[in-house]
């Protein structure tokens, strides 16, 4: 889903931060903040081999759009780009990229953090962690 | 008054898909008319749902409260605790 | 100045965010935050044509290193990369890139914002703004 | 007691470089022994420094307080308000 100031994508392909950067770059803005979530090998004492992301695509897009619209109005952001992976994601690969541009840096930091915080609360995307000795859906364990 | 119940289709994701064994569940001819009656049905038919953390229900791609009325024409989905990012 | 976890560079060449990203990416980390300062066309009512950065190089490197070391210890960051331009920088070009990696995202956001805030306070780098109708050293005007 | 003063070299950046007209200033044979006496000398010789925002002095690449002693062997620099980023 791409319009002039908002670029939201769920993708089965490797994410590249330059795409988000190029989308939000604008001569009206002096500050860009980007958050990149990558797959780390250790979660507490468990060794991870890879992740698998599943999503409810139309609702995920619609929830992301709601979050972005709140971020535009609360922080005065200029452009927002959110790309999230689906499927198999290996160690050090990118799970999510959020880039935002704003006139000034404080709004960029706050808006970017707001988007990733809200994404983790409400967007219907599920992460299965594959460990050396088993697998589980994150946040589902009793 | 006679009511005709149609099969209700429920989309299943993540742990819910694995518990149900399919990405879609068809619920035949059962009187489910609210989110809470759907939740009760699922927990009774698939007791594993009581073991895992609470799921939510989305109706037409929006999170829905327990008293939200539903019918077979709605797009209904089980939303386990999300874990994107 | 590059060591295992810290990469600080003052450069007369165009900056590329992929270099900072690749430096801080690490399988021990789940969150990377990047701040990119770009040149915007408007500062209040003044139209900018380009910037020119001058620096006191050895002291700038030493001040940046102090800031980075405080950020490592205050926020538990894993890796830090700071690249700052010198010389002529055009509209939409990058003046500064700060990338940090951390186990968790909150530390990454806070650490990255800390570094740019402190950089703007103490690092001996000076920016001359060239406008349509004149030029001046930023922050020096009475 | 006779003291011999050597030329003191001062590095100049940004607006200070433009006011002084050079990236290095050599101050000959003047009794400058602290940061504050250097500041006073600069403001008296280059009155424009009184117009712009206060500058700081760095000694051996560290910001220095006014009472910091200095001599011609130190690396001394005028640091106008910084504006990186």
Broad shape of chain A? elongated
How many domains comprise the coordinates of chain A? 1
The helix-and-strand class of chain A reads alpha+beta
Which blocks of ≥5 consecutive residues of chain A have pLDDT under 50? none
Shape, principal axes of CA atoms of chain B:
globular
The SS-based structural class of chain B is: alpha+beta
Assign the CATH class of chain B.
Alpha Beta
> What is the straight-line distance between the termini of chain B?
50 Å
Query: What share of the residues of chain B does DSSP label as strand, in percent?
Result: 15-25%
Strands ordered across the widest β-sheet of chain B: 2-1-5-3-4
Q: Based on the structure given, which CATH architecture of chain B is correct?
A: Roll
What kind of assembly state do the chains in view correspond to? Answer: heterotetramer
Using only CA atoms, what is the Rg of chain A? Answer: 15 Å
**CATH architecture assignment of chain A:** Alpha-Beta Complex
The greatest interface between two protein chains, and residues involved on each side, is: A-C, 31 and 31 residues
Total E-strand runs of chain A: 9
- State the CATH superfamily name of chain B: Beta-grasp domain
Main features:
heterotetramer, A: 142 residues, Aldehyde Oxidoreductase, domain 3, 9 strands, B: 85 residues, alpha+beta, Ubiquitin-like (UB roll), five-stranded mixed sheet
Structural notes for this entry:
The complex is a heterotetramer, with two copies of chain A (142 residues) and two copies of chain B (85 residues). Chain A has 142 residues and is of the alpha+beta class. Chain A has one domain (6-133): Molybdopterin biosynthesis MoaE subunit (Aldehyde Oxidoreductase, domain 3, Alpha-Beta Complex), CATH 3.90.1170. Helix content of chain A is 32%, strand content 40%. Chain A has helices at 17-24, 57-75, 105-122, and strands at residues 6-11, 31-38, 42-43, 46-55, 79-85, 87-90, 94-102, 125-131, 134-137. In chain A, helix 2 (57-75) packs antiparallel against helix 3. Chain A is elongated. Chain A starts with 5 loop residues before the first strand and ends in a 5-residue tail after the last strand. Chain B is α+β, with helices and mostly antiparallel strands. Chain B has a single domain (8-79), classed as Ubiquitin-like (UB roll), CATH 3.10.20.30. Chain B is 21% helix and 24% strand. Chain B has two helices and five strands. In chain B, a hairpin with a 2-residue loop joins strand 3 and strand 4 (62-64). The longest helix of chain B is centred in the middle third of the chain and has 11 residues, at 35-45. Chain B starts with 7 loop residues before the first strand and ends in a 6-residue tail after the last strand. Chains A and B meet through strand 4, helix 2, helix 3 and strand 8 of A and helix 1 of B.
């Amino acid at each position: 889903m791409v319009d002039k100031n908002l670029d939201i994508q769920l993708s089965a392909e490797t994410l590249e931060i330059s795409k988000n950067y190029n989308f939000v770059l604008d001569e009206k803005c002096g500050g860009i903040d980007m958050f990149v979530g990558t797959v780390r090998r250790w979660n507490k004492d468990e060794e991870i081999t890879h992740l698998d992301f599943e999503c409810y695509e139309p609702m995920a897009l619609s929830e992301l759009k709601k979050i972005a619209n709140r971020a535009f109005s609360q922080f005065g952001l200029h452009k927002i780009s959110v790309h999230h992976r689906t499927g198999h994601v290996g160690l050090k690969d990118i799970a999510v990229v959020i880039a935002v541009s704003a006139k000034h840096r404080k709004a960029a930091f706050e808006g970017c953090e707001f988007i990733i915080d809200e994404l983790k609360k409400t967007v219907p995307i599920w992460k299965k962690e594959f460990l050396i000795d088993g697998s589980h859906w994150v946040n589902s364990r009793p | 008054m006679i009511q005709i119940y149609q099969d209700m289709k429920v989309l299943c994701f993540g742990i819910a898909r694995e518990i149900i064994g399919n990405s879609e569940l068809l619920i035949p001819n059962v009187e489910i008319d609210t989110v809470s009656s759907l939740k009760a049905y699922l927990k009774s038919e698939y007791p594993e749902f009581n073991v895992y953390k609470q799921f939510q229900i989305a109706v037409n791609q929006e999170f829905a409260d327990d008293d939200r009325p539903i019918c077979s024409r709605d797009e209904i989905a089980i939303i386990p605790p999300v874990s994107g990012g």
